[in-house]
Each structure stands twice: as structure tokens, then as C-alpha cells.
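Suppose a colleague, Dr. K., hands you the sequence of a protein chain of 83 amino acids and asks what its three-dimensional shape might be. Before reaching for any lab equipment, you can write down a predicted structure in C-alpha cell form. Begin with the sequence itself:
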Amino acid sequence: MNIEMRLSVEDSPNSAGVVIDALRAVKIGLDRKIGGFLEGPSAYFMKHPPIQYSDEQAMQMVEAFIVGKEKAVVKELARESKL
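The predicted structure, expressed as C-alpha cells, is then:
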């Protein structure tokens, strides 16, 4: 199989890096056989994620997702928001 892709970004020169990082997160999700949306990466990289978090919380979730501990961070953030 041969796939050819083209990436065109109109927002700004900086958004190309964001798209590449989002694609890296998708690859991690695919490698881990995760289905559905990626909560942390979506909250951090997308303008209108399914669930909105603060930038700081979303960044923590992305970092946890990369090392495979996103569920623990999501639970901790949910507990903190109830306090």
C-alpha cells in the first residue's frame, strides 16, 4: 500500500506544528488500539474539543497520554473539579 499525503495550513505558520503533534497523538492511539476520540489530545490540540479543559489541564492530560497514564490524570482532574 502506498499513501501520499499533503498538509496545507491556512491559520498560521505555527499551526502546522500543532497538526503534526496531533497526528503523533493519533499514531499513539492507533498503536494502543484506542477507539473513539482522544480526550487529552483533543482538549489540547483542537479548537472545539468534545470536552473542554483548561490549557494547563489539557497539557497534563497529553503528557499523561504519551506515557500511558491518561485515565489516572482524568480521574484526578474530575476529583479536583468536584472540590
